[in-house]
Amino acid sequence: MYLSHFLRRPRSVWTVLIALALLCPSDSTPADSRPVRLPFKDLNGRKVRVSDFRGKIVVLNFWATWCVPCREEMPLLVEAESEYGPRGVVFIAASLDDRETRSKIPEFVDKFRIRFRVWTGASTMDLEDLKLGQTLPATAFLDRDGRVRARVLGLLTKDELHERLKRLLGN
User: Fold this and answer.
1) Which of 17, 63, 118, 123 is the 20 to 30 A CA-CA neighbour of 112?
2) What residues does CATH 3.40.30.10 cover in the chain?
3) Residue 117's closest CA among 100, 141, 94?
4) Looking at 12-26, 86-100, 116-130, which range is the least confident one?
5) How far lies 29's CA from each of 24, 75, 135, in Å?
6) Which of 42, 37, 93 is nearest to 64 (CA)?
7) pLDDT at res. 16
8) CATH fold group of domain 31-169
């Protein structure tokens, strides 16, 4: 339903405000005030931080090898990285796999031909800290200052991904 349809009929101010809240994209809120500084480990066990990419736009995707929607979403991220990576966008796949399933990450990386950074050690607390809920997949889009500018909770669509990246790149 379009907003113009809603506004044609007399409505209370509250009804209009609720309609606007529901129809506006969830990422239209201002950037979080503090930059993301979450620590993880790369696949070689070295400590890494999202803040190491200050100055670049970052797509921070939370996933796990056992997550069925993550398997559906990953090819989209791989494709987008080949398009936006050369334009300076950094893609990071932060895995929530635990000790029991972490050994399946290399097979997952090979299967989906992931060429961007894959990190381990992510947790549901990280999701909460970034206001991403508690389900996978979840994606945060960070601006060049390292602040969250957009979020997608659940399966990311191609349109959502491209729209957010174009906005962050200033297109």
Assistant:
1) 123
2) 31-169
3) 94
4) 12-26
5) 10, 28, 21
6) 93
7) 37
8) Glutaredoxin (3.40.30)
The encoded tokens of residue 27 equal 């990422």
Peptide bond into 137 cis (omega under 30): yes
Residues annotated as catalytic (active site), given as ranges: 67, 70
Q: Has residue 95 got a pLDDT over 60?
A: yes
Among 93, 171, 101, which residue's Cα sits nearest to residue 136? Answer: 93
Strand order across the 138-142 sheet: 47-49, 39-42, 117-120, 90-95, 58-63, 138-142, 148-153
Residue 110: exposure state from Cβ atoms within 10 A (0-12, 13-18, ≥19): exposed
Q: What is the pTM of this model?
A: 0.80
Q: Band of the pLDDT at 36, cuts 50, 70, 90?
A: confident
